[in-house]
Specification:
This protein is mostly beta strands and about 290 residues long. It is about 5% helix and about 35% strand. A hairpin with a 3-residue loop joins strand 3 and strand 4. The radius of gyration is 24 Å and the shape is elongated.
């Protein structure tokens, strides 16, 4: 079985320097048609800062309640054939992509709002979320560390992204998914099975993913501009971000090659107008269920 679920919200946040004067930390990109991931080193001037760094980070969320409902009764999360992949599509246009880099997806530990901003040139639309603020209820709800950079173990109260944790009593493990981009124009395709299955079972909070350059690639002295991925607001519905869920629900049918002296099984499936339905018995048409 192959199921596809599209994102419910996505955006990216940045501390980009504008006009060599200020950082656009309050700019929102919730309605942008792409998610732009970049790292600029010493490309701008900012008063009081030597060799400034400018970075962006992507956020994406899927409604896993819909996923769980679609899988109910069809597969268990410990089925070895069950897998979930986060897929996002490259949209470079005329831009030159960086090469030889890694992107990492972490589960987010707090909720955020997409916002309605679409100004990708001046970052002048002020809304939540942004580099500083995750959401707004009665007041601004800030990231624990600007740029949603507070990283820690599952269960910590002062983090933005969950880097590791113990799931279902197992040994502590990394909860990050990473992909290497050799040429820079590849689509994003990450195995997020552990994160998604744990979230659907309640072992992880479901606030979506943060996507960023890996480790020192955000802090080194190299400029990486720009890895551009389509967002859920792109006009082409076939290249919007998606969560692909797969599992093997096939059954081998040997009824045409049955053999003597070999134990076999016979299965009967009954349907009423396309829906699985129990057999009925007698004039009262009572439902028959259970074994035998």
């Amino acid at each position: 079985m192959y199921l596809v679920f599209t994102a419910s919200k996505d955006t990216y946040i940045t501390n980009k320097i504008m006009n060599n004067d200020y950082r656009a930390t309050d700019g929102n990109l919730g309605r942008a048609s792409t998610i732009d991931l970049f790292k600029l080193y010493n490309e701008s001037v900012l008063s009081g800062v030597t060799a400034p760094t400018e970075i962006s980070r992507g956020l994406i969320y899927f409604n896993l309640t819909d996923v769980s409902a679609s899988l109910k009764g069809k597969v268990s999360f410990d089925d070895p054939s069950f897998s979930c992949r986060l897929k996002m599509f490259d949209m470079q246009g005329t831009s030159v992509a960086p090469k030889d880099f890694n992107l990492t997806a972490y589960p987010l530990s707090q909720s955020w709002q997409e916002g309605a901003g679409a100004d990708v040139s001046n970052f002048a639309f002020l809304d939540r979320c942004n580099w500083i603020t995750a959401s707004y209820t009665d007041d601004n709800v800030l990231w624990n560390l600007e740029g949603a950079q507070a990283k820690g173990k599952l269960g910590s109260s002062d983090i933005d992204i969950i880097s590791s944790g113990s799931i279902f009593g197992q040994a502590e493990q990394s909860l990050a998914a990473t992909q290497y981009f050799e040429f820079g124009n590849e689509d994003l395709d990450m195995d997020v099975t552990t994160i998604v299955s744990a979230s659907m079972c309640g072992a992880l909070p479901n606030h979506g993913f943060l996507i960023a350059f890996s480790g020192s690639e955000e802090t080194d002295t190299v400029t990486r501009f720009v890895k551009r991925l389509t967002s859920r607001h792109t006009r082409n519905p076939y290249i919007r971000p998606r969560l692909e869920v797969r599992f093997d629900d096939s059954q081998l049918d040997h009824h045409k090659v049955s053999e003597f002296n070999l134990t076999s099984s016979l299965f009967l499936k009954t349907f009423s107008r396309g829906a699985a339905t129990n057999l009925v018995s007698g004039s009262g048409r009572s439902s028959i269920s259970g074994d035998n």
